[in-house]
Amino acid sequence: MLQTRILPSAANAHQSPLLIKRLLLSGSRYEKTREIVYRDKLRYSYVTFNERVARLANVLTEAGVKAGDTVAVMDWDSHRYLECMFAVPMLGAVLHTINIRLSPEQILYTMNHADDRFVLVNSDFLALYQGIAAQLTTVEKTLLLTDAEDKSADLPNLIGEYESLLASASPSYDFADFDENSVATTFYTTGTTGNPKGVFFTHRQLVLHTLSMATAIGSLDSIRLLGNDDVYMPITPMFHVHAWGVPYVATMLGIKQVYPGRYEPDFLVHLIKTEKATFSHCVPTILQMVLNAPSAQGHDFDGMKVIIGGSALNRALYETAKARGIQLTTAYGMSETCPLISCGYLNEELRKGNEDECITYRIKAGIPVPLAEAAVMDDEGRLLPNDGESQGELVLRTPWLTQGYFREPQKSEELWTHGWLHTGDVATIDDMGFIEIRDRIKDVIKTGGEWISSLELEDLISRHPAVREVAVVGVPDPQWGERPFALLVTRDGQALDAKGVKEHLKPFIEQGHINKWAIPNQIALVTEIPKTSVGKLDKKRIRLDIAQWQEAGSAFLSTL
């Protein structure tokens, strides 16, 4: 190990661990009167927010929560969730953000696996919770969250209702310092096989992630997305990677924050209009849902800025959003990465190019954010050159990557093979540092000795004017190994068949974007494409559905 010079500190010098409480103190320093808004039900200032975090800490301490305990939350996106994101880890406890869209069996597994001791439950999930309560092995007490006037509930070991308890608690709390490497949060990935896997993040990791994100989306001129005069409304569930970490950034900067509760497309549009939201983030399918909402028709979103992640951003959606007044920027990350790794940035050279060239780079996965390091690696663990052509698995290093899967030592070792975190994504990196995700390793289509990117096919097919949504997967073929199969949702009043898709793709073959084997010889026209619990295309479910349709000879299949 390199020998460096380390000088002694003064005996009384203050040691300042990187703790989440440092982020909380900044918001009210900058903008005391800025608001935290919950639906059309509640709004209060940053001063009140800090007091409520202290009140919640007192309630939890009185209930018996101690440092190291795991406190779980089952709620929609709300002011309560934001308060928990601070109060729980600031006590030295671990916040478990439960994915309420998992099956009851998976939720039960994650709660027992995480050793949840205290659970805050929204009244909307009472039936779900009551159905698994008898099988929970570590939970000691519950706390009710509700918007209803009735503050009672049939919950085992209920200590009371959230607002009532906060109202009677002290508005001050002396949060102690402790080791910055203490675990602050945990949640479970939505794996397509086996049980969900638990990832976890420390105070140090979350603070460094927050600082890097604030720099990347607030200081880089070509993607300047979030300053503290913006109005922030997440459309990414708070249970999913801390709503991508943006609530911590917004709170640190004293930004007005709007929390929509349960996602209802028309109500999301209503809040965007009435609260004048200027910044959000979501997966492509959620953005399409918002744009297609009846209340969004004819509305100019007038310069709203949205980060797209979770799934590839295709050109058609980028152009559709731009025509509606929304500037989209791609970002890349995953549950294991806290999540931000890269963001779409255009340097001076690229900004001098034409609009078509700029879009090409804006919809890539972007350039690594400050403190993040990315590379592509072959199957033997060799790093490949950043030439935009060499294709391998994207691997990562940053100070905020999960150090493993909770109680999964073998999978943790696999995740960190060769000292890099393995993403499972096939990618290239060019000489400017741009990451381009070609596909998930498990989703690359292998046909006739050729490798076809399902993401690239989805992008090209999405440019057909009749296509509203598309998913492409590989399906078994006795002659070619696999063949691409496309699921399409068409726009209202539009029609399309396999022959039409072929004609649409022919020019891209002639231009060298794809080869002739990439044309699907069979498509399915559907009204909805299956999604995962966080809004991504569920390609495992899609493959199963296709197999059943082919066996049954379904009428909505179109074949060349």
Tell me about this structure.
- By secondary structure, the chain is α/β, with parallel strands linked by helices.
- It folds into three domains: 20-202, 3-Layer(aba) Sandwich (Rossmann fold), CATH 3.40.50; 203-440, 3-Layer(aba) Sandwich (Rossmann fold), CATH 3.40.50; 444-559, 2-Layer Sandwich (GMP Synthetase, Chain A, domain 3), CATH 3.30.300.
- Helices cover 31% and strands 24% of the residues.
- The chain is built from 18 helices and 26 strands.
- Strands 7-6-5-3-4-8-9 form a seven-stranded mixed beta sheet, with helices on both faces. Strands 12-13-14-15-16 form a five-stranded mixed beta sheet, with helices on both faces.
- A hairpin with a 6-residue loop joins strand 14 and strand 15 (340-343).
- It starts with 19 loop residues before the first helix and ends with a strand.
- The mean pLDDT is 93.
Helicity level: 25-40%
Number of domains: 3
Radius of gyration based on Cα positions: 24 Å
Q: What average pLDDT do the residues reach?
A: 93
CATH topology of the largest domain: Rossmann fold
Which class of secondary structure composition applies to the elements? alpha/beta
From the 3D coordinates, which CATH architecture of the largest domain would you assign? 3-Layer(aba) Sandwich
End-to-end Cα distance, whole Å, is 62 Å
**Spatial strand arrangement across the major sheet:** 7-6-5-3-4-8-9
CATH superfamily of the largest domain: ANL, N-terminal domain
Q: Mind telling me the CATH class of the largest domain?
A: Alpha Beta
Q: Name the beta content range.
A: 15-25%
**Please, how many helices?**
18
- The number of distinct β-strands equals 26
Q: How would you sum up the global shape?
A: globular
Largest sheet: 7 strands, mixed
Give the uncertain stretches in residue-range form: none
